[in-house]
Amino acid sequence: MPQVTVEAVETVGTRTAALELRTPEGFVADPGQFVLVRATVDGVEETGYYTLSSPGTDGTMEVTVEYVPEGTLAPWLADRSAGDTIEIEGPFGDVRYTGDGPVVVLAEGPGIGPAVGIAERATRAGHDAAVVFWGEDPPHGDRLDALETEGATVSVVGSLDEAADTLAETGGTVYVFGFESFVRDAKTVAEAVGVADEDLRAESFGAR
Are the beta carbons of 88 and 21 closer than 8 angstroms? Predict the structure, then answer.
């Protein structure tokens, strides 16, 4: 399992940090895939899966960590500093975006990480991109603002029904990242507006 160096840690939202990691030799992944992080915290080995939030892995890559004070691995990761090392394994996951067409990404909570990574990859490849975040005050606000400047659609909604028009207008592949209930509801909305099964890709983070 490779040790990777932390290049930077940035607070990107409420109880949310982005860790920029030096990409280990031979590691190649696409946004949407995830890595296993392993660490010893207070004498106990902890593991967790974190989805890439960078548009690529050339030189460095990024994961976004949402944490609560009573957590273990996540707050430990958010407390890292440049020069520290962590252990990772992967990449894992069949949900990935390779830059091959327009996208709509529906996200909640830490799902905003892969959402911005995928949208940035799409816009840099010249494709339409839309990010729909369910909730309030999404992390990575600066990157979302930059995406809008580059022509992407960014929506913050209180109901997934508000995502229907975006899904219908943008077309392309629909990605969903979030906890189980959100993923289930997002898939229902996508299917209701005619998104085909082969154009719908979802990654659940488990029950909240």
Answer: yes
Place of tokens 């909604």: 157
Q: Which residues contact 30 (CB under 8 A, 6 or more apart)?
A: 52, 56, 96, 97, 98, 121
- Put residue 188 in one of left, alpha, beta given phi > 0 → left and psi -120 to 50 → alpha: alpha
Count CB-CB contacts under 10 A for residue 137. 10
How many CB atoms are located within 10 Å of the residue 27 CB? 16
Q: For the full predicted model, state whether its pTM sits above 0.85.
A: yes
For residues 44 and 113, what is the distance between their CA atoms, to the nearest angstrom? 27
What average pLDDT does this structure show over 167-173? Answer: 85
Phi-psi region for residue 17, left (φ > 0), alpha (ψ -120 to 50) or beta? beta
Write out pLDDT tens, residues 52-101: 999 999 999 999 999 988 899 999 999 999 999 999 999 999 999 999 99
Residue with tokens 């400047």: 149
